[in-house]
Automatic annotation (TrEMBL):
Residues 299-411, 687-799 form the ABC3 transporter permease C-terminal domain. The chain crosses the membrane at residues 21-43, 294-316, 345-368, 388-412, 433-456, 680-706, 727-749, 769-789. It is a multi-pass membrane protein. It holds the Pfam family FtsX. Keywords: Cell membrane, Membrane, Transmembrane, Transmembrane helix. PROSITE patterns: PROKAR_LIPOPROTEIN. This is ABC transporter permease. GO terms for cellular component: plasma membrane. Residues 22-239, 528-644 form the MacB-like periplasmic core domain.
Length: 806
């Protein structure tokens, strides 16, 4: 029986190869898109799932309910971790984690490595498997170091390295460390990534920070004992906060703090570690996070494309069913049962779907690398063999075959045998189901067009918005891990001295935008001034910083080498000036930012030192030696950008032969800040194109069906004098109305979705009415052009031939 079904199905599929080819193309493209999108979603939701203790791991964060808003931050002071472990028995393990880097020296080899400074409990909290060395306590001694399998091979060309020594320069003095463990390389879906682990006590400045409760510079993780309730534990942490932050609570209260529902001004909270990857409010781990709404958007787009393809499948199958009406009638006359007919057509559906699945996977393989490059994801098709994706793929395949196969089959078996054999199947009037499906298809397509236009507008707006500094002629060069930034700046300044293309050179702590090192950092400090708390971002700079960036002073002067006291002076932006002295001059004011106080010597015009997602905040420039120089900024002449980049690259390699050059223009850095928006725009554009193409395939099939059904009507109209134009407009009118209705349905949905999305930006466009007009016109025009081909073809047929064929 099954063999007969398959043979008959193959014969019928070949007979209707044009329709089935359309089905195959539309469905395979949809499967390829959905495979890539759903694998990306699976990868994002799988982050940190390899940790065995994941449900019991938490990250600490502070919530301070200030007068303006509640501020949350994950940075912790050095003494907090040990104090928590002492005061609360609910904590099974706790570890601090600070970031750093250094050049590793082994013999003549020098390699830059990223370092996490942690406590011994770190490897008990997280599942980073020790494959070589002491699994029980690999960080027992202060000079112990644990490295990854990858680092071991890079440094020693082997993983059998336990007991070997490496030299690190963490504080200006070389130190020797003993390798006591090698961890298995962590997977790509790990939020915590490192080259080596050192004891927290080795972090630069550790001893001086042991008693500083307001110096927050690292993260804290803990694993609670089994059956400890997180909510109750957080309430009991309030006593700890009041004990160590009484003075800060008093200051925030004085400035008009707004207590939370429990009456707390400041609280220490726990974030489940499994949620850190999607926690954009706290910035994610080490300032990196992924928006859950963006990932869900990918899922919705994938479902949309799959839904459009299924609708196409149904409409194409129904369209072809009218050409097979006599076949159904003959089968029923010969005794075929209802379920035999359904089974026959379902086998055909399974064969088409299986062919589309195979072709879709081939397309996904061919486009995988370009997809990974555009979305910056690390998916592989081998992930399909994992239980979750495999079950999902099989489930979707079965669902498509059931939905897209059974409806047309049930529709065809309802034909009355006598009418079918007479050739009088009544299907001239378009069915409600077909019209509803068509409206759904084009509603989704138009919605994607609206989202594409608005996303593109917002991205373009942010890229063209003046930032208040010179971003086109200024180059940013990141200092390598373990490299002394101040020393590197002075050496390179001497190297470029006399270069006619270099106008100015300076250095800074925090980059503008995101450079080739992929790093973004910031430092915020607060102090009490005239009875209220002042908070400002600190930017450590070198001389000529404002000159290099073409930032103008509005009052006072810039830092100068002629004034020795400038080492303790500050230059502030207009926002900071308003915060400390709303009505008068800020220059010469003394700010209690440190023990000596800092004098304001200048005020500069505010610029967007962060992305346009946030408003410009108070900013203070300092020459403080406690902050390192992490970036060198070089301003060059406007007409020599390419030549200047080449010259500076060569001089960098000559000055620092062992350090990679990762310089980039600030214009590139600022564009990288909006990678998420660009990716979203790319996804929307690609999805809209695919959705429209698949919808047009279905529209072609439906139009063919309608033209076949109305052949006699067209012939009669031509005999009675109708022109080709009149007939084309008549045949297209119904479809254009449906597409127009679809556009009207999509407009309010599109406006609401994009309005919510734009609310996350401090600088944003206003949604214009013409966006919806363009989207509607595009949808109607595409539908009309698609239908017109078939309409014109039907209208040009000789009426004598049309009437004879009927």
């Amino acid at each position: 029986m099954i063999k007969n079904y398959i043979k008959t199905a193959m014969r019928n599929l070949w007979k209707g190869r044009v329709f089935n080819g359309m089905n195959l193309v539309g469905l395979s493209v949809a499967i390829a898109c959905c495979t890539l999108l759903f694998l990306t979603i699976y990868f994002e939701f799988s982050f940190d799932g390899f940790h065995k203790n994941l449900p019991d791991i938490y990250q600490t964060y502070f919530t301070v309910n200030r007068a303006e808003k509640a501020e949350k931050g994950t940075a912790m002071p050095v003494p907090l971790g040990p104090a928590l472990k002492t005061d609360y028995q609910d904590i099974q393990y706790i570890s601090r984690m600070g970031n750093g880097g250094s050049v590793v020296r082994v013999g003549d080899k020098q390699i830059g490595q990223s370092i996490h400074f942690v406590d011994p409990d770190f490897l008990k909290i997280f599942t980073f498997q020790i494959i070589k060395g002491n699994e029980a306590s690999p960080l027992k001694n202060l000079n112990d170091v644990v490295i990854t399998e990858y680092s071991a091979k890079a440094i020693f060309n082997s993983i059998d390295v336990v007991g070997k020594t490496i030299e690190l320069n963490l504080t200006g003095t070389p130190q020797t460390f003993v390798v006591t463990g090698v961890t298995k390389d962590f997977p790509q879906n790990s939020s915590i990534q490192f080259d080596m682990l050192l004891r927290m006590e080795n972090m630069p400045g550790y001893q001086g920070m042991l008693s500083q409760w307001n110096n927050q510079n690292h993260l804290v993780y803990m694993k609670l004992n089994p059956n400890v309730d997180r909510a109750n534990f957080e309430k009991r942490l309030q006593a700890f906060v009041k004990k160590h932050y009484a003075e800060q609570i008093k200051e925030v209260k004085r400035d008009g703090a707004r207590p939370d529902v429990d009456g707390n001004i400041m609280s220490l909270n726990l974030l489940p570690f499994g949620d850190t990857h999607f926690n954009t409010e706290l910035g994610g781990l080490e300032g990196q996070s992924t928006s859950k709404s963006a990932v869900i958007s990918l899922m919705v787009i994938g479902i949309f494309i799959l839904l459009i393809a299924c609708i196409n499948f149904i409409n194409l199958s129904v369209a072809r069913s009218f050409t097979r009406a006599r076949e159904v009638g003959v089968r029923k006359t010969l005794g075929a049962s209802k379920w035999q007919l359904v089974s026959q057509f379902w086998v055909e559906t399974v064969l088409v779907c299986f062919a589309a699945l195979v072709l879709g996977l081939v397309l996904a393989t061919l486009t995988l690398e370009s997809f990974k490059a555009s979305l910056k994801t690390n998916i592989t098709l081998s992930m399909l063999l994992q239980p979750g994706p495999l079950a999902g793929m099989l489930g979707i395949f079965i669902l498509i075959t059931l939905v897209a196969g059974f409806y047309p089959a049930l529709l065809m078996q309802r034909f009355k045998t006598v009418q079918v054999l007479k050739g009088t199947v009544n299907s001239v009037k378009p069915g409600k189901v077909r019209n509803i499906l068509l409206v759904v298809q084009f509603s989704i397509s138009t919605l994607l067009i609206v989202c594409t236009l608005i996303t593109w507008q917002q991205t373009d707006y942010m890229q063209k918005q003046p930032l208040g500094y010179n971003k086109t002629e200024v180059m940013s060069i990141p200092i390598a891990r373990g490299q002394d930034g101040n020393q590197a700046l002075q050496l390179f300044r001497h190297q470029l001295n006399g270069d006619p293309n270099v106008i100015a050179l300076s250095g800074c702590y925090d980059n503008l935008g995101m450079g080739n090192d992929g790093s973004m950092r910031t430092s915020v400090t607060g102090f009490t001034y005239k009875g209220h708390e002042v908070r400002t971002t600190i930017q450590k700079v070198d001389f000529d910083y404002l000159k290099t960036l073409d930032i103008k002073l509005t009052d006072g002067r810039d830092f100068s080498r002629e004034f020795a006291t400038d080492s303790n002076a500050v230059v502030i932006n207009e926002q900071m000036a308003r915060q400390i002295n709303a009505s008068g001059k800020a220059v010469d004011l003394s700010l209690p930012m440190n023990e000596i106080h800092s004098r304001v010597i200048g005020v500069f015009k505010s610029y967007n030192f962060r992305s346009l997602r946030t408003q410009i905040e108070p900013l203070t420039l300092v020459l403080d030696k406690n902050y390192p120089i992490n970036y060198i900024l070089i301003k060059v002449k406007p007409g020599s950008l390419i030549q200047s980049m080449d010259d500076i690259t060569q001089k960098w390699k000559a000055t620092f032969p062992t350090v990679d050059f990762k310089g980039s223009w600030l214009s590139e850095n600022t564009e990288k800040q909006y990678r998420k928006e660009k990716r979203l725009a790319t996804i929307f554009i690609t999805s809209a194109i695919i959705a429209i193409l698949i919808s047009c395939i279905g529209l072609v099939a439906i139009s063919v069906m309608i033209m076949v059904q109305r052949t006699k009507e067209i012939g009669i109209r031509k005999v009675l004098g109708s022109s080709v134009t009149n007939i084309v407009l008549l045949l297209s009118a119904d479809f254009v109305k449906l597409v127009g209705l679809a556009a009207l349905i999509s407009f309010p949905i599109g406006w609401w979705l994009m309005h919510k999305w734009l609310e996350s930006y401090a600088y944003r466009i206003d949604i214009q009415w013409w966006v919806f007009l363009i989207a509607g016109v595009m949808a109607v025009a595409i539908a009309f052009i698609t239908i017109s081909f078939q309409s014109i073809r039907a209208a040009l047929i000789n009426p004598v031939k049309s009437l004879k064929s009927e």
